[in-house]
Design brief:
With about 140 residues, the protein is an alpha+beta fold. It has a single domain (about 15-25, about 35-139), classed as Aminopeptidase (3-Layer(aba) Sandwich), CATH 3.40.630.30. About 25% of the residues lie in helices and about 35% in strands. It has 3 helices and 6 strands. The protein has a 6-stranded mixed beta sheet, with helices on both faces. Strand 3, helix 2 and strand 4 form a beta-alpha-beta unit. The radius of gyration is 18 Å and the shape is globular. It starts with 14 loop residues before the first helix and ends with a strand. Keywords: Transferase. This is Acetyltransferase (GNAT) family protein. InterPro entries: Acyl_CoA_acyltransferase (IPR016181), GNAT_dom (IPR000182). Pfam families: Acetyltransf_7.
């Protein structure tokens, strides 16, 4: 008889555990390239993070998962600069496409459209009648 398998949950995954999963996926699909995470930060003179974004380079695409700018620093072009850095990094990593998702209540679709993104899908059914918008652009 097989021993039971335990499923573990954490809301704060260790980077080593995420890296383990990425390495295993990369090992199984070497002909398609490799996936790996990225992270960009902007800091003020006090070395505090005022803006940042993260995501993954994955099989020819760079996906931005999260983009945040401190409210006191918005409307100053920081998000635009971060996304330029993402696009440049994606090109250097051999990506031909950039992708993002945003929630309808975040009101950031126009921001991404100004950067050349186009919506290619929208999924409804989220909290308070909101939707998730999927956008992409060529690099």
């Amino acid at each position: 008889m097989k021993s039971p398998v335990n499923i573990q949950y954490t809301s704060t995954p260790a980077s080593e555990d995420i890296d383990f999963l990425t390495q295993k996926i990369n090992q199984e699909t070497p002909e398609c390239g490799k996936a790996h995470p990225f992270l960009f930060f902007m800091r003020d003179k006090k070395n505090q993070i005022i803006a940042g974004c993260n995501g993954s380079v994955i099989f020819g695409s760079i996906y931005t998962d999260q983009l945040w700018v401190h409210p006191d620093h918005r409307k100053r072009g920081l998000g635009h600069k971060l996304m330029e850095a993402v696009h440049d990094y994606g090109r250097r990593s051999g990506c031909s496409m950039a992708t993002v998702t945003t929630m309808s209540f975040q009101c950031t679709k126009v921001f991404y459209e100004k950067l050349g993104y186009v919506s290619d899908s929208e999924r409804t059914g989220y909290t308070r009648g909101s939707s998730c918008i999927f956008l992409k652009r060529s690099l």
